[in-house]
């Protein structure tokens, strides 16, 4: 990562925050950091190799996924969120672009740039992606784990219906739609091949009011939903289930070639020159990590309940 680009985008805090969080985490369904180092011009982040492309890429190709495939994706996401929430972290930007396939078809949650350790007064933390951002974030209210489950609900809705529940050209347009009405999938709109349980799960996650949203009381109530009856959670956590959708080899080659293309945006010359100043370099102080010293190797959460009750979603009206 170019330091000059990071400075030009005013993203130093985000980059340093991501390093700090990733240094504490290790799980089968989040992207794990192996090493981090820097020189005068660049930051280097060594991560798990994920060659399957992101969920957005595959949604655009497939338009929709079937119920079996979607359930597998959702379980991967729930397990990643459970792990983060147990550790007191809100991801805050769960979306298809931040869910990447490995070569076995398992999804991993990536991009911790705007993830945060939860704090009780967080109404001003309004970062996120319109369309996946929970109403309480858009309306500048204190929030908890429910924001990540709302985003999961949008993804499930998108896999079922082929579109998001609320669409618009701006955050304001989407906010106005959310305020105007509660979108739900009606029984007569359920596509062929989808169960009532899957639709009920999506509908309960995209509730506008946090108090009504599935997940407000933590991950156990999400995992206990009827859609997951008799699901082998532990087997999937241990990667003992064959994924129902695996990116093809030719797709992985295409994705790799696209990722090699230089975005080629002009770097601001002033930002490049600023790297000569010690005060600028000091902003990247401590950007280093050696994964071999990371002893946090337990892929399973410390408990089945969110360890800090206060992190649970604010039960606002």
From TrEMBL:
Pfam families with a match to the protein in the record: Pkinase
Source species, domain of life: Eukaryota
InterPro entries from the UniProt entry: AGC-kinase_C (IPR000961), Prot_kinase_dom (IPR000719), Ser/Thr_kinase_AS (IPR008271)
Positions of the UniProt region annotated as Disordered: 290-317
Residue intervals of the AGC-kinase C-terminal domain: 229-299
Gene Ontology terms: cellular component: cAMP-dependent protein kinase complex
Domain (Protein kinase): residue spans on this chain: 1-228
Keywords: ATP-binding, Kinase, Nucleotide-binding, Serine/threonine-protein kinase, Transferase
One function term, GO molecular function aspect: cAMP-dependent protein kinase activity
Protein name: Protein kinase domain containing protein
Lineage per the UniProt record: Eukaryota, Sar, Alveolata, Ciliophora, Intramacronucleata
């Amino acid at each position: 990562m170019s330091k000059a680009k990071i400075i030009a985008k005013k993203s130093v805090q985000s980059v340093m925050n991501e390093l700090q969080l990733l240094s504490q985490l290790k799980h089968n369904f989040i992207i794990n950091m192996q090493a981090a180092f820097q020189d005068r011009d660049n930051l280097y982040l060594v991560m798990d190799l994920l060659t399957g492309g992101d969920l957005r890429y595959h949604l655009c190709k497939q338009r929709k996924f079937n119920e079996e495939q979607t359930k597998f994706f959702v379980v991967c996401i729930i397990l990643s969120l459970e792990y983060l929430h147990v550790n007191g972290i809100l991801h805050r930007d769960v979306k298809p672009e931040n869910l990447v396939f490995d070569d076995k078809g398992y999804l991993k949650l990536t991009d911790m740039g705007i993830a945060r350790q939860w704090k009780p007064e967080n109404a001003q933390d309004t970062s996120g992606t319109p369309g996946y951002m929970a109403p309480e974030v858009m309306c500048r209210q204190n929030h908890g784990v429910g924001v990540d489950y709302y985003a999961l609900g949008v993804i499930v809705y998108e896999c079922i219906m082929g579109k998001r529940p609320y669409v618009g050209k701006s955050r304001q347009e989407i906010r106005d739609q959310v305020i105007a009405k509660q979108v739900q999938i009606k029984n007569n709109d359920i596509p062929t091949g989808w169960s009532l349980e899957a639709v009920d799960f999506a509908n309960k996650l995209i509730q506008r009011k946090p108090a009504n949203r599935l997940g407000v009381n933590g991950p156990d109530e999400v995992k206990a939903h009827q859609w997951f009856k008799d699901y082998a959670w532990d087997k999937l956590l241990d990667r003992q289930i064959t994924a129902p959708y695996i990116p093809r080899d030719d797709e992985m080659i295409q994705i790799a070639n696209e990722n090699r293309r230089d975005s080629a945006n002009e770097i601001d010359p002033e930002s490049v020159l600023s790297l000569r100043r010690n005060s600028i370099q000091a902003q990247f102080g401590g950007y280093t990590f050696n994964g071999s010293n990371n002893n946090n190797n337990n892929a399973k959460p410390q408990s089945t309940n969110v360890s800090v009750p206060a992190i649970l979603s604010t039960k606002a009206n």
